[in-house]
Design goal:
The longest helix has 21 residues, at 236-256. The chain has helices at residues 18-26, 43-54, 64-70, 91-101, 116-129, 146-151, 167-176, 213-218, 236-256; strands at residues 14-16, 31-37, 59-62, 79-83, 106-110, 133-137, 161-164, 179-190, 199-204, 221-224. It is of the alpha/beta class. It folds into 2 domains: 14-83, Ribosomal protein L30/S12 (60s Ribosomal Protein L30, Chain: A); 91-256, 3-Layer(aba) Sandwich (Alpha/beta knot), CATH 3.40.1280. This is 23S rRNA (Guanosine(2251)-2'-O)-methyltransferase RlmB. Belongs to the class IV-like SAM-binding methyltransferase superfamily. RNA methyltransferase TrmH family.
Length: 257
């Protein structure tokens, strides 16, 4: 069995074992997703699956080898739950924060980011730039793991992260609240020619794939950064940081007048 290179004990984001996962569900603990052994759907695992679905928690089937890898040395009994290192916020919380500060909403929308270091770096930059919150989807996305929390260097305590079931519907809700949606992609207009002084929802796409088709169709504007070298794209968190600081720069200019 391949061993986790970073640790020889249970992953800090995982609760393993049937009773432990059941108690985590009963307690209302924030759970990002649950892995179960493929084919195991009866007894207590069946109960776990039902409770998870009622709570809107994604459940996926996996192999014994993968469960062994994330729970080394632990009797996982065919089930493991990935718990969040920090509680999630609601979309309303982000808008309430902007309103309390008397500012136009400024949100980061992460479309299926999978690298916890990218999400953590984005949260850290968002806090520095004065963004009011981050929005991520429940499925096909990294959640608030301990790696994200550590990479964010404390910013998770100040930047609310909302986790939504349907990202496209959440964007529609943002638009109703006066937010313009800006997608970061390769074939858009120059990033610095746009006006970001109103409500801003900045979409950052997945590593390697960019913004998904449906979310791209929801964007009001597509903005691009110039690429002068041989490599065709930037790391997601680097691109996000550059764009966030342009939003911050324009808003600072307005407030200084």
């Amino acid at each position: 069995m391949e061993k986790d290179r970073n640790t020889d004990r249970q992953h800090p984001d995982v609760v393993a074992g049937r009773n432990a996962v059941l108690e985590a569900l009963r307690s209302g603990r924030t759970i990002d997703k649950i892995d179960i052994l493929s084919g195991e759907t009866k007894g207590s695992i069946g109960k776990i699956v039902a409770m998870a679905r009622d709570a809107g928690i994604p459940v996926r089937e996996t192999t014994a080898q993968k469960l062994d890898k994330i729970c080394p040395g632990v009797n996982h009994q065919g089930v493991a739950a990935y718990v969040a290192a920090h509680d999630y916020a609601e979309l309303d919380d982000i808008f309430a924060k902007a309103e309390a500060l008397g500012e136009a909403p400024f949100l980061l929308i992460c479309d299926e980011l999978e690298d916890p270091h990218n999400l953590g770096a984005i949260i850290r930059s968002a806090e520095a730039c004065g963004a009011h919150g981050i929005v991520i989807p429940k499925r096909r996305s990294v959640g608030l793991t301990s790696t994200v929390y550590k990479t964010a260097a404390g910013a998770c305590e100040y930047v609310p992260v909302a986790r939504v079931s349907n990202l496209a519907s959440a964007i529609d809700e943002m638009k109703k609240r006066g937010v313009w949606i800006y997608g970061a992609d390769m074939d858009g207009t120059q990033w610095c020619t746009q006006d970001y002084t109103g409500g801003v929802g900045l979409v950052i796409g997945a590593e390697g794939f960019g913004i998904s088709r449906l979310i791209r169709e929801k964007c009001d504007f597509i903005v691009s950064l110039p690429m002068r070298g041989k490599i065709s794209s930037l790391n997601a968190s680097v691109a996000a940081g550059i764009l966030m600081y342009e939003v911050a720069r324009q808003r600072l200019q307005i407030s200084a007048k």
